[in-house]
Amino acid sequence: xxxxxxKGWTDQEAGVEQxxxxxxxxxxxxxxxxxxxxxxxxxxxxxxFPRTRLKVLRMPREVWDMENGWSTPEYRFHYWFExxxxxxxxxxxLFSEDIVYRDLEYVDHHGWTxxxxxxxxxxxxxxxVYSPMEDPRFPGDSDYLATKYYAYQDKERFHHDKYWxxxxxxxxxxxxxxMYGPRGATLVQQFHVGHMWPPEEKDEFWLGPxxxxxxNGSHWVHTL
Length: 224
What we know:
Elements: E1 2-10, E2 16-26, E3 39-42, E4 44-47, E5 52-60, E6 63-65, E7 70-72, E8 75-85, E9 88-91, E10 95-108, E11 115-122, E12 129-132, H1 155-167, E13 173-182, E14 186-195, E15 203-208, E16 211-213, E17 220-223
Antiparallel strand pairs: 1-5, 2-3, 2-8, 4-5, 6-7, 8-9, 8-10, 10-13, 11-12, 11-14, 14-15, 14-17, 15-16
């Protein structure tokens, strides 16, 4: 599972032909070996004056700490820009950011909800993410885990079986998941809630602090 992080650039001078971002993720307190492995992406030219460029990066939800032998959801994001300008190439300094997370819980006292995601984005709604939520009591080896929903072919069977499994769990149901971003960043967030069984009662909607809302409408704001 991944999340999306928009990274931008604004031309400070004329003659910039292309900008490439080079980046790597490491556990906290570690630095990348740029000769070994890193990612690079060309920023998309968005035009305007001054000209802006943007690339939405697909970010990991955790990185492997080789020194300690475990995965960590908090890590360091390192990046620099390669600029092609007037037939020449130059690079920026190295930047680093702390990636942290925020856990959220959605409480269903009535057992009505069969599917729920955190719908969120870093900064604004330019790169939204759906983070499937699950009650931690739900069996971890089940075929009906929320994270398996989008790849599950028979959605009607999924809805039916998940609904009845949830009905046998003590209430309230406490759906949980998390959001990520650089320390100090603002996140915008709604819930996407579904009651998908029985078929004649199907209902799904986005939920904000003012109740039901359109996607990207009424929303909560978090600071990491």
